[in-house]
Every structure is written in C-alpha cells, then in structure tokens.
Amino acid sequence: MIKSSIKEERNLNHMENTNPNLILNACRFTIDSFCKQDEYIIAFSGGEDSSVLLHAMVQLMADKKIKLRTIHINHNIQQNAHEISTHCSQVSKEYGIEHSSYDIKIDKASNIEEKCRIQRYKILQEHSHRDELILTAHHLNDQIETFFLRMLRGSSLKGLSSMETSTTLNDRIVVRPLLEITKSQIQSYRQENKINYIDDKSNSDTRFDRNFIRCNIIPELKERWASLEKIMSNNLSILELQQCAVDRFVSSFYKECISEDDTILYIDEVKHLEFYIQVLLIHHWVYRVSSTTLNLRHIHEILKIMDTNNDSNPLFIFSNAKITKNGDKLLIVKP
C-alpha cells in the first residue's frame, strides 16, 4: 500500500517541473509514509545525487524529528577513491551526523557492476538494524538506464519495471525517495543550494554497460524524443501495474507449490502446471527469496534440474540465488 501511494503521489509531482521544493517534498512524503520509523541511513557516495538527497534530508531532520547517519562504501575501483571517502566523512561531520565508511574488494575479471551492487547492499544490510530505513539516491534517469540494461540482458517483466520505490531485503527496508525525480531536477536543486559534491571518475568509463547507455545511448534517444523521461516514466508505471497483476495471478498457485518459509519448491506440484505458469512461478519464487531477477535462460536451467536425477550441490547459482535438488524438492538458500 505504501509503495503504491508513493508512486501515485510522485507521478503527480513529477509533472510540476518548476516546483522548487520538488525534492524536499519527495523526501517529506517518504518520511510521512514511513511515519513509524524515525531512523535513516543514507547510502552516501559523495556524488551529486546522494549529496542532494543528504542535503534535503538534513533540512527536514529537525522539523520531522528524525535521526540521520551516512554510510560510504568504497569500491576500490576509482582512481580518486581515497579523496571521495575523505570528502564523504567531512561533509557528514559538517552536518553533525554520524558517518561510517567500509571498503569492498571484488574480482574485476567480469560483471563488475553487478558484483559492486551486490556488495553494496550486503554492506548496507550488515551495518544497519531493523528500525532503520536505508535511503538510496536513485532517480528517474537511473530507472531508464536500468530498463535498457535489463532489456538487453533478456530480463522479464519484473526486471523491465526496474527499481521499486521501496523494497525489503533480509528484514531491511530500502527506500528510493527520488525515483520519480529527473537528473536535471537534481542538478537544479544542487545549484540552487550550492551543494558541494565530488565526481566519481569511473562514471564516465564507457567500458561499463550502464555508463555506455548513459553517455552514448540516452543522449541519442533524447535528441530525437526530447520528452524521453516523461515517456519512460509512463511506460515504467504501466509495466509496474502489469507486474502487480502477474504477481496476483501467481500467488493463486504459490501456496500449493512452495513451502511456508519459501525455501522449498515441490517439483511434482509444479510439473503438472502449464509451462508459462511454471516460468512465472519459478521467477516469482527466486525473486521473493533472493531478490534475484532471472531471465528465461536461467529459468530453463532450473526446469531442467527438476527432471534430473543428480542431487549434487549446488545445481544452480546466479547472483544471490543458490538452488539444489533433493529428491522431489528444489531447495533455495537464502543469502
């Protein structure tokens, strides 16, 4: 209910592009929507987006009687990583709020973006408690980039509808207050309030898929369709509504096929269903347990496992999802 109301309200606000309080209103609405919680962690990269989110939340801190702290995650892939980390610590100190910084190291051989994303959320979950809301500064242009990334990777309807306003990961709530705010609106707020930020030089490295889409593909599309953000915002809203309908449909089969704790899929119950229902059910199951969005190739692999006599461990690994087989059951390991 909260997610839907936030989405509807923001769609109205998104039309008011000249509203100077647009970002403050978006943050205020998030606080009011989660009124039972008053502790917030901001994932603070030091870049323009998270610097604007932090500034807006600080403006509301006294009036809304909320507690703020920041977490910076150093990926150790930026040339100016130490400079960024120092900047985040100094800004938080100037605001008078608690700050923590954590280093992550990843195998840089392949899929660096996805590995960094997984590690970021892992750190945020490990270093927060249940009474805190985790805020990230994702905005509408990030949504559009995510749509194209997932489309090119063969994602499902769930993936194409992109990020949700709020998600729950291992009992931690992640909220994205700026998800209906455009990058240009963030830039205007930053300029108006003279907010200092620091560039992550890796954001211009087009070897990374997201950066390639941001720097090369999106500008070309906007050159032809100037109102790209509005068009895509509408499309993403429609996809989200369609996904809600699919979720409702799948839930009618879920209890018969999946254990109460979500860890077991009963193969015999699934195999008698029509193929398209099997696909939707497995996709829904894996996402619900691990927040992993599978494509059709992944689901075909899992369907093959259902027919094999091999119960070796694990049979399927992708992102946070690890699936094994034990007789007439598929078992999924929670991350």
Order of helices and strands: HHEHEHEHEHHEEHHHEHHHEEE
- Kindly report the spatial arrangement of strands forming the biggest sheet: 3-2-1-4-6-5
Low-confidence stretches: 1-16
Structural class of the helix and strand makeup?
A: alpha/beta
State which percent range the strand residues make up. 5-15%
What sort of overall outline do the alpha carbons produce when their principal axes are compared? globular
Q: What is the gyration radius calculated from CA atoms?
A: 21 Å
Question: How helical, in percent, are the residues?
Answer: 40-55%
Number of helices: 13
Can you count the beta strands? 10
* Major beta sheet summary: 6 strands, mixed
Describe the model:
The structure is a single chain. By secondary structure, the protein is an alpha/beta fold. It has helices at residues 2-14, 22-33, 48-64, 81-95, 112-126, 140-152, 157-160, 183-192, 209-224, 228-257, 267-271, 275-290, 296-307; strands spanning 39-43, 67-74, 98-103, 132-135, 166-169, 172-175, 264-266, 316-318, 321-326, 329-333.
